[in-house]
Amino acid sequence: MEQWIRNFFDNYVSDMYFPNVHLTDVIEILIVTVIVYEIMLWMKNTKAWMLLKGMIVLAAFILLAAIFQMHTILYLAKTSINVLAIAAVVVFQPELRRALEKLGEKNLLSNINPFDRSKDNQRFSDETLEALVKSCFDMGSVSTGALIVVEQAIRLTEYEMTGIELDCKVSTQILLNIFEHNTPLHDGAVIVRGDRITSATCYLPLSDNMQISKELGTRHRAALGMSEVSDALIIIVSEESGQVSVAMGGQLVRGITPEYLASRLSQIQYRTSEHKKFTIWKGRQRHEEV
Ligand SMILES: Nc1ncnc2c1ncn2[C@@H]1O[C@H](COP(=O)(O)OP(=O)(O)OP(=O)(O)O)[C@@H](O)[C@H]1O
């Protein structure tokens, strides 16, 4: 046996090339792995996924053209590659912007300590959380439509500007009043920053997601659209069914319970939970429609 092992090493292993692996190489491999993983997740959650699928089909087509020596197709592919790259940047400008914003806003140091639940790290208070939950389900029970955007790391100033500026503390009464039918502020969305409502009647970007259920109208589409271009959590109260839904990271969860909404809000209540929250929303969950 010993002889066999010795022979094996002499015959096969001694001729193998083992590069010198340093600690920096391992760190480099880990960094590249994380970057590739993040890019793949980003692609999966955006329209870039479609682009990737399109690119794979195009690459397969070009490969076939190369195998069968189709020179005209190869020439066209070669000359149009630069144009296609620029076109991709233009088409995916919102997604790229969002990805860079996310990168810039992520507080890496605070992520190191996920248990830091100090007041300084609090995005909004328990009072605000309770007021949001209570008002949404109160409105749902009387079929009053509502759209509430809870801002996180990405500032929503450009959307605030589409509405009427407010500066008041979040409370159940104020929210019920704002969304009351036939009142001047009931149309559009409310934006909540911290414990304050900063704006009402805001216009949100509509999602062009083809998979969204046809029974959902523009309120839900606007919530989903907003969740695609920002990291905000958006609460929707349906005027038609009284159902409460929530959108975040391009995912919509319909027909939620007060406990579910409270738990989603508490996940984003502290700034330190930023990383956790992104991870949670990467996969689809129960109730998710799109
Ligand atoms: N882009 C938008 N930004 C903000 N609010 C919007 C936007 N589009 C529609 N809304 C709000 O949604 C209301 C219309 O809702 P609509 O009935 O079309 O949607 P829905 O998803 O079917 O919701 P519901 O279940 O409440 O009927 C508008 O009155 C307005 O308040």
From TrEMBL:
Documented EC number(s): 2.7.7.85
Key words, A-Z: ATP-binding, Cell membrane, Membrane, Nucleotide-binding, Nucleotidyltransferase, Transferase, Transmembrane, Transmembrane helix
Top-level enzyme category:
transferase
Reactions catalysed, as given in the entry: 2 ATP = 3',3'-c-di-AMP + 2 diphosphate
Which InterPro entries is this protein grouped with?
A: C-di-AMP_synthase (IPR014046), CdaA (IPR034701), CdaA_N (IPR045585), DisA (IPR050338), DNA_integrity_DisA_N_sf (IPR036888), DNA_integrity_scan_DisA_N (IPR003390)
GO BP terms: namely:
cAMP biosynthetic process
| Domain (DAC) ranges | 93-258
Note the Gene3D superfamilies from the entry: DNA integrity scanning protein, DisA, N-terminal domain
The transmembrane residues are 20-41, 48-67, 73-92
Q: What Pfam families does the annotation carry? A: CdaA_N (PF19293), DAC (PF02457)
Q: Which PANTHER family match?
A: DIADENYLATE CYCLASE
- Role: Catalyzes the condensation of 2 ATP molecules into cyclic di-AMP (c-di-AMP), a second messenger used to regulate differing processes in different bacteria.
Query: Which NCBIfam families would you find in this protein's record?
Result: diadenylate cyclase CdaA (TIGR00159)
Which family does the similarity line name? Belongs to the adenylate cyclase family. DacA/CdaA subfamily.
How this chain assembles, per its entry, is: Probably a homodimer.
Question: Protein name, please?
Answer: Diadenylate cyclase
List the source organism.
Answer: Faecalicatena contorta
What gene is it encoded by? dacA
